Structure formats: C-alpha cells, structure tokens
Structures
1.
Amino acid sequence: MLELIELYEECEHSLQRARSGPRERVSGSRAIGISLREDVVTARADILGVLASWAGTVAEARNVTGPGRRDVRELVRFLADNLDWLLGPATAGDFTSEIIEVSAAARRAAHPDPVLRTALGVCPAPDCHSTLYSEPAGSRTTGHHRIRCDAGHDWPPRQWLLLARAGARLPLTSHAGAVA
Ligand SMILES: [Zn+2]
C-alpha cells in the first residue's frame, strides 16, 4: 500500500512534466489547464477517493478519528495503522481489490510508454492474473530492468529464476548476469 504514495507522486511528477508555462502546485488547484492528461488526473483522484473512503469506513466502524486532511500520506498512514482490521474477513476482499485497481490505473497513467515494456506472461503470484512486464529501471542506458505486474507485484532479480520456472518468458539472454 505504501506504493500508492509513490504512484501518487509519480502521477504528480508526470503532470508537472506535462505542464507548460509557469510552475504551480498541482494539488488544490482546479485551474490546471487543458494540457494535463486526463488519465493521470483521474488516477490521482481515484487514489485519494479510495483511500479517503476506506479511512471513513474505518473511522466509523472503529469509532476512531480519521485523518483530518485529504492528504495521501496521512490517509495511507491511517489505513496502515488499521491494516489488521482492514484485512479482516469483513473488508479484506473489497479493500485489497480496490487498492490493486487504483494502483494499476495509476501505474498505467504514470508510465504510459508501452514500447519500453515487454509482456512476459501471467504474474505467478497467488490469485494474481495480471500481465507481467519487464521495463527499464533507473537510467535507460544502464540496461537494468525491473519485472512487475499490472497489479503491483514487484519481482526483484533474485526471484527471476522462480518466475522463469513458473513459465514467464524472461528476456534473460542479454541480461543473464542479472539472474545470478
Ligand atoms: Zn501480480
């Protein structure tokens, strides 16, 4: 769930890159111009909406005070504090599927360049049927890749052999050293 903060900020950076003209803060501004990509704006709003909605649910059900502000970090911190309850039988299914959904949408919005991504098959994580991708990590010239799926499972290099055994089509021929 902490990844949501990262994604939220990636969306914000993506908006800042897209904007021409003088810099202004994105948050709190409604007059943000027509150059903004709608999917990014929507993804950010959806992250906040889902987090705030669950914070409200928790606050009401547990009779505690939720975050006073609609701030992504405060909301995530509050939800993390109540994660045991959220992952209880009454809410776990809805909560996790909504978090996964907004994460995936934000990731697609923040990283719209599909050319750099290579589909590797289906993510082997339990109950995950999302597409697994390799994509450049860090500087595009270093040749390093990261592997993750649309739902947000991040597979570090030490697990790539596991992925290969699970049937993923890993592009290992040119990066075989990374597996060792
Ligand atoms: Zn996955």
2.
Amino acid sequence: MDLAFKSLVNYASRKSGVNLTQYRENYLRRRIEFRMKILGVTSFDAYLKMLQNDGKEIDKLLNTITINVTEFMRDKTPFEFFMNHVLPDIARRKEKVKGNLLRFWSAACSFGEEPYTIAICVFEALGSKWSVSIYATDIDDECLRVAKDGFYRPTQLKNLGKDLLEKYFEKEEDGYRVKSFLRRCVKFKKHDLTTQEPVSRYLDAVFCRNVMIYFSEQQKIKVVNDFYEALVDGGYLVIGKSETLPAGFKDKFECINLREKVYRKFSNLANSCEEE
Ligand SMILES: C[S@@+](CC[C@H](N)C(=O)[O-])C[C@H]1O[C@@H](n2cnc3c(N)ncnc32)[C@H](O)[C@@H]1O
C-alpha cells in the first residue's frame, strides 16, 4: 500500500470506527477512487484533506464502500431451498424437543429485504404456530432506518407475487409497508461484523450473503468463526452465491447444497436434510 493511500485508509478507519485497513486493498482502492471521481479529486492526499475538513464526507465514503444493493428473495433458489429443505429440518428437530422458538440472524441486512424475506419464508413453509425471532444487523445507520420503517416501492417488490404482497404488506399511497406482525419478528441492530462479537447464540440459521466478498481472508475467518459460535449444533449458514467459506472450515461445517451455498454446523444429530 503506498503511503498516501495508507494514510487515507488509516484516517478513515479511525474517523468511522470501521477497520477499513482489513478490507481487500483492490476493492477499497476502487471504491475510494469512485468517490473521488464524483468529487473531482485527483489525489489521495487531497481527498484526505477533504475528509479532515468536511465532517460529513466520512459517511458518504462509508456508504460508497459498503454498497447496499439487496432484494426480496434475492437469487430466489436459495430461499426456495430454505423453505423446502432447511426449515422443515429445523422444525422437525424443534418438535422432537417440544420447542417452538425459531431464531435467525440476517448479518449485513442492508435495507431489510433479507430479514423480511426470511420471515415470509418461515410463515409460508411452517405456518404461524411458531414464535419467530430474527436479528438483522448492518453497520450502515441509514440502511437500518429504512429497514425498521419497512416501507418499499413497487419496483423493490418485483420478486414477490400478488399473493405474498397481500399477505405480508399493507398498501399505502406510493408503495407497501410490511405488516406489523411480520415487523415484530425482526430486531434491527447496528453491528460491525469485522470487529464485534456475534449478536446472539443458539441460532437456528445465519444468513450472511453478499458482504464477505468485500472482506479480506482474515476478516472472513473471524466472521465465519463467529457464525460457528453463534449457531446451535446442526444450525445452518447461508452465504452469497458467488462467495466461498475460507479454507480450514471443513471440520466445522458440512456443505448441504453447494449451488445454493447452504452449510450446516457439524453435530452428532442424524442427517435429515437432502444433500446435493
Ligand atoms: C450488498 S449488501 C448485502 C445485503 C443482503 N445480505 C443481500 O444479500 O441482499 C452488503 C451490506 O453489507 C453491509 N456491510 C459492509 N461492511 C459491513 C460490516 N463490516 N459489518 C456489517 N455490515 C457490513 C453494508 O452496509 C451493506 O448493507
């Protein structure tokens, strides 16, 4: 890393409280240069001065680095697999011990589409007799604000059929709001995956999709270890379609479906979910 770039990244890390020094350098360079181009700034030194002089610029840089793209039922098939195979398996295990609480974590939830999708999948696959608790976390305050509000425009809901829209959303003037019974299932919280402890333990499944691509190998290892700690034995981890688990996790997670990137924490329980 050249000196000017390094000073900029160190300053931005201190100022934002997010350890950007651990992000992949090429990715970080591309995103910072993208922001500089918008501002017409041509050197890292000049951009550092701008960050030091304009208190609001750090948030704009952070938003540029942590792209928030997301969708309801993103990629569709991982959520179909979740409904048809993972949830029935979790429910069977709970029924054996007479439990009725299902606990999930949507890590890096962006504007909330992912945790609400998880909630919809649970109601669709298992009905309403379960108590559902979903932690939904992100480092971006603006994302969390929008997510809590639960209001989405029709274009953001294009992956949901009319039937799901009617069941889970209230129509408002310019869009739809997630119904309150569904919103009550989700607890939104600010959380930095790279520096903080897991938000909870004894979770049945963790979704961490399309964020580890931005992380260095070292950060990925920290984060996947956290998920291992946070899951119950036999709990599921779902990652993004273009993502891979770091090396060294073969004895901790078994791959349940390689195409959908669904893994399960090893346990001694009988294997009851379909392998690919
Ligand atoms: C591309 S979105 C993924 C949203 C959703 N999981 C999905 O797959 O549609 C990436 C999200 O990761 C968040 N993010 C980036 N770095 C993070 C970190 N260190 N801790 C927690 N969230 C982070 C961003 O704010 C952004 O909302």
